Amino acid sequence: MANRLEHASSRYLRQHAHQLVDWWSYSAEPFAEARRRDRPVMLSIGYAACHWCHVMSRESFDDPQVAAYLNEHFVSIKVDREQHPLVDDTYMLATQALTGAGGWPMTVFTLPDGRTFHAGTYFPPRQRGRVPSFMQVLTAVTEAYTQRREGVEQQAAALAEHLVELSRGQHQMMKFSADPATVQDGNQAEGQALEVAVHQWIKTTRSEGGFTPAPKFPPTQSLVVLWQQVLTHPEPGPLFDAAATTTEEIVLGGLQDHVGGGFARYCVDEHWAVPHFEKMIYDNAQLLRLLGLCQLACTQLAATGTDPARTQRATALAEACTRAAAGTATWLRDSMLTGQSGDRHRALAASRDADSLRDGQHVEGGAYTLTREEFDQAAAGLDSPLPEDLIRLAEVAEDPGHYCLSLRRMPRGSERETWQRLLQAVRELVAERPAPARDSKVVAGWNGLAIEALCQAAIVFENPGHRQLAEQVAHTVWEIHVAAATGTLARVSFENQAEQGNEGTLEDYAGMALGFAALALAEPSGPWALRRDRLLEQALSFIDEQGLARDTRELDPALAAQRGQQPAATALDDAVPAASSLLARALLLRAQHTMAVPDQDGAGPDNEERVDRDMQAAQALVGHSPVVAARFPSAVAGALEVQGLLQSPIQYLRISGGEPRQLGALRRLATVLGLPVGAGDEQQPAGPGNALRIYPCRHTTCQAPVADAAALLQTLRRG
């Protein structure tokens, strides 16, 4: 039996290389082998940081009896969902259609042509209530395939037709139209969509941090839109109350690793107290961007607000965001940067596991939780005890006697310093524990989101080290992932080797374009604008002759057998905003940047034409948002952010004069609002004595100047 996983670029696949299962990695070959042997295919889909994937691996795939049965009756494929997102998306749709639910590990049974006829998620080694054991499932599938083939074929055909219908609906939703009349007619509906979405979000944040019941996933993109509205709305008070309610839970509760920095994937309970401990790079990148926006919005509200209670709340939340952002950026640098100090190529790894070793056993959260005795030991050295209404120790249900440390409320006065001393004592206490394993594969699109967030954090928090990290990561992805001859982008790399034959999806191109765009704004003399443009040129080729944006250039046969045709790009946000929305924001930002600094990228006389194309494309890519926003606003929050930027009375700024302090305040505000800044010309002079003058502009027209960042905000709020 060949060991096909031993040298895989995916750590998730390498974790299964020792097993007796005759695993294949995902390609056309195992489906051909299934046709040759006339066997069904068993796809096991997961990812390296998935706790229950590890559990099922130990319970079932490590079992010689299970392995022998699989080898005789199936062709088994192990799939890293992060490596092959379209494979994951397709089989997740099939699993949800069959079972009404989804998740990982995902266990899918297909015909040799790739069409699904049975699916599930985690199966235990022994039957639990109504949940059959994995061996029971395998024997039942084998019996159905060998003795009731006609019924299996009919099931697969019916499911494939259902997925084709879903693809048709997606096509209709994402129908691309660059007709200026259509775009203009949609503006009113899109403005109303943003207003309706914000109203719904306000209603959902009135208890326990809002948005959803447990499990509590951070609604990061929805909060980005809310905080942008806090900054620009003429009556920001109710918007602030809503946005602050959930953001406080995120930065105070168990989602944040207060000791080691960074954020977990989600919280398992209603009160944001106990996390599911895996940490993903895409979550932390988006949350870092959110923290900068929240910090600046709170600082502005505290400086200009008239409600003392809101002012106090905003001040405390701004400070908490500053601490959380510092911890997250440090975690990215110290824990997630691949390679060694001094290496030329270093990028950000995909994830950290939820599990770690304790007394030789894998324990979920083992690196992060404390016993009561450990907490008392850490607190013993404090000069004064922290009040009980401040500290929260939440017991982990699956690990009795072990607790997650977080905050119930914002520290006040001397409590802040005492809390930091307690965290340092805990760090020293847990320093010798085994760290959770890291999946060191580099995913292009996720690194792009992190580059953008680090660039913005460098400006908002006035920390040039964040931009230096962003530049190092950006250089690495460009040199390792982008093919010099073709400009195509590899989705993943491992140990500085790009995975051949696995081109990036639209999400990868758009995410990296956003990262390069952020660097182009921060470092105008660098190569970043040209690199942004090369990736956007590739990304625009994902829009076909019918005007539909696609997630990939070509669908492989196994996926095409299920979906009937190349599906349109995903219209709805998931853990990351929809790729179409990311591309729309990247195109819009390029158009704004070109208007602000028309000569930077050498586009010359083609500038105006390209700006118009980019603006129309961005509008069309998010044109589906009014259809969805009324009922499911969080599903199109990425598109709604773009709609807000498109409708803004200001698209870019020109400035003349000014002192460093004023320019810094303006740059921070412009960064979080997505407003590129260019130098004024002879028609946009400075004020007397070189006083700062800010010229708000939209397309080719600039308004009368304002004197500072506060006045600029008032202009935005007046519309």
Report on the structure:
The chain is 50% helix and 11% strand. Among the domains are: 11-172, Glutaredoxin (3-Layer(aba) Sandwich); 208-337 and 368-432, no CATH class; 652-717. Helix 10 runs parallel beside helix 12, helix 21 runs antiparallel to helix 22 (607-621) and helix 22 (607-621) packs across helix 24 (637-647). It is globular. The longest helix has 28 residues, at 308-335. The chain starts with 10 loop residues before the first helix and ends with a helix. The strands form seven sheets. Strands 1-3-2-4-5 form a five-stranded mixed sheet, sandwiched between helices. Strands 19-18-20-21 form a four-stranded mixed sheet. The protein contains 26 helices and 21 strands. Strand 4 and strand 5 form a beta hairpin. Residues 176-186 have low confidence and may be disordered. The protein is α+β, with helices and mostly antiparallel strands and 719 residues long. It holds the Pfam family Thioredox_DsbH. One of its GO terms (biological process) is carbohydrate metabolic process. This is Spermatogenesis-associated protein 20-like TRX domain-containing protein.
